[in-house]
Specification:
alpha/beta; Dna Topoisomerase Vi A Subunit, Chain: A, domain 2; 2 domains; two-stranded antiparallel ribbon; two-stranded parallel sheet; 10 strands; about 40% helix; about 15% strand
Length: about 240
Amino acid sequence: MRRYRTSSVGSSHGQIRTAGWMLLDRLVESGFTLYYSGDFDPEGLVIAEKMKKRYKGNVILWRMDEESYMKSLSEEDITDRTAKLNNIHIEELQNIKKTLLKIGKSGYQEAIIQCSRYGYVKLIINDGIEERVWDEEKITQLLEQYKQSHLFISGCYSNQGKFYKHFDYVVLLKADLNVMLDRINKRTSHNYGKSPEERAEVLDSFENVLPLLAKSSDIIIDTTHNGINEVCRKLKELV
């Protein structure tokens, strides 16, 4: 447990054991309000249910909503464990329970912390398909904050065209397909594009999305034979 001014943060490993309940009981008896934030899976919701039934108004479920769930989605399939959700009865958890049953994947609160730091992208469900898009409210605030200075924003999202009018240049960085795949294979900063499903997304985007991006771009820089220094030089010339 680590103390921050008048608040303390504690973490349990899995289900709360007897010692954990004893600690929480004493905190509530001493007049403290508990804030519970758990994983979005059947087990996490079971803990939330137990907390609310045990402590009632003395516990607040923090970031246990659908928006936070969508931001924290993982690839872990939980359809073989959803029967546990039949034990979730309190009204406060019914919406997230239904969403878990519909999507069938877990979500982890650690991802919300990452989204809070780099929260310009959010996850939505579009016709039953998960899609990451720019958080338009936050992008608007970012543009307003830096409207008197230079600002570079990188990314590729379906709603980015709404903001083109705010930029001096829309620049497309492209590369030949074999070079792009080789870079993905050698990349160590993250693993996107290496699984069969993600590789299929990359190939589909190269064939169907890239031509559309080229049409809407002011400048196209081919990075096939250009290193990072040369690309940066060309970008700096735009400032």
